[in-house]
Amino acid sequence: MTGLIAQQVEGLRSYFNTGVTKDLSWRRQQLNQLLTMTLTHQQDIVEALRQDLGKAEQESWLAEIGFLEDDIKHSLKHLAKWCKPRKLSTPMLAQPGSSWLQPEPLGTVLIIGAWNYPFQLLLAPLVAAIAAGNCAVVKPSELAEHTSALIARLLPRYLDSNAYQVVEGGVEQTTEVLKQKFDHILYTGGETVGKIVMKAAADHLTPVTLELGGKSPCIVASDCDLDVTAARIVWSKWMNAGQTCVAPDYILVENAFVDKLIAAIVSKLDAFYGKNPAQSPDYGRIINPRHLARLQSYLEGQKVVCGGQVDENTRYMAPTLVQNPALDSPLMQQEIFGPILPIVGLDRIEQAKDFINQRAKPLALYLYTRSQSLEQQILAGTSAGSVCINDGIMFMANPALPFGGVGNSGMGRYHGQWGFDTFSHLKAVMKRSTRFDIDWRYPPFSAKKMKMLKWVK
Fold first, then answer.
1. Which of 123, 345, 381, 451 is the most buried (most CB within 10 A)?
2. Is 47 an active-site residue?
3. Considering the entire predicted model, what is its pTM?
4. Share of the chain above pLDDT 90, in %
5. 116-147 pLDDT, tens digit each
6. What is the 3-state secondary structure (H, E, C) of the chain?
């Protein structure tokens, strides 16, 4: 396996050097092939996701298949524009002349996907890499074994295998692939492995994009539309059984409004998943027993006001609400990545800003309010990778918005043109005319030349 991975990467590098991937029509053809694969094998993808995570078909379409379809179509629509030189101004000293940025592919890149959205989080970055004209190794998560196997089987049937290779496997294979030299690495996952990726990349001075996670806060003001707010919180938190990097990780709400909010959330949980979510075809499962045990441990000593039930045989954990957990408990110190939602009471909603700022910068921040003043206070006074006001996760549906973290929640960004630029080098170019060649910058220097230089600057 060790030698095979090195050969794969070297083969991709050699193929990139032929210049085939730089051709715009070739890139379009590869993107169309990826789209054809996604649409042709929708049911295979749905079934793999069901086996790995218990995802409902509609959820799989919304967050994985449909998401990738839209991403590909958006890239195809705008690709010609993205590839064009981007004109810039030229200072008087360099006139007559012109300046521009020339997008060019980086070369051979590595994309390491995550298990929670194992189809979309692996192939959406690949869309950007293809659009930018790169070769790529894609490494699916071994935890989502059915989706990984499906991608490994389908991708070579639809994409140019000289340009795109799949490497399956666990720690050993990931370690080996990280030893290879790449021109960029995009990793989606947790902070611990993110540090390993970054250290490995440093050996080759390889730039990285790290899409990590963190504890994304959800601020709920008492002036919100309670019915809509509860529905949107439940949808965004318990999609994929809470295993979403941008899911609300905890709620901040005034103490006087806590009981009303809990009642509204419980009502929506019943409406969405029934009195027994274990019987709902729309509610997912935890990826594996280890993560289920981790989530169970977070409930020790906590005030569970809804849910908490577990079935180890089916990897089921009920939608769970915890009221006022100890702030130093693992529940409030670790990213939950599961169907537990802590609710933290505050004396005043304005305290939410300081609460958030005392912690690591989150990947996402949510605010439910009708108050323009509170909205501006939170926007101006906090930092997060993305912010969504009066909804959850929906910023992901806009390919014009970049996706990425800040601080511990990640670095770099992708989606749409942002992804194209991530996998491109925007080469700075200046072109000068030789018709005029004023000698002010040439020796021998003089006071007159200095005066003229200062004037044109």
1. 123
2. no
3. 0.95
4. 96
5. 999 999 999 999 999 999 999 999 999 999 99
6. CHHHHHHHHHHHHHHHCCCHHHCHHHHHHHHHHHHHHHHHCHHHHHHHHHHHHCCCHHHHHHHHHHHHHHHHHHHHHHHHHHHCCEEECCCHHHCCEEEEEEEEECCEEEEECCCCCCCHHHHHHHHHHHHHCCEEEEECCCCCHHHHHHHHHHHHHHCCCCCEEECCCCHHHHHHHHCCCCCEEEEECCHHHHHHHHHHHHCCCCCEEEECCCCCEEEECCCCCHHHHHHHHHHHHHHHHHCCCCCCCEEEEEHHHHHHHHHHHHHHHHHHHCCCHHHCCCCCCCCCHHHHHHHHHHCCCCCEEECCCEECCCCEECCEEEECCCCCCHHHHCCCCCCEEEEEEECCHHHHHHHHHCCCCCCEEEEECCCHHHHHHHHHHCCCCEEEECCCCHHHHCCCCCECCCHHHEECCECHHHHHHHCEEEEEEEEECCCCCCHHHCCCCCHHHHHHHHHHC
Instruction: Report the mean per-residue pLDDT for the chain.
Output: 96
Q: Examine the residue annotation and report whether 211 is marked as an active-site residue of this protein.
A: yes
Active-site residue, selected from the candidate residues 59, 211, 254, 335: 211
Q: Annotated catalytic residue: which of 83, 245, 306, 388?
A: 245
The pLDDT assigned to 440 comes to 86
The better pLDDT of the pair 454, 423 is held by: 423
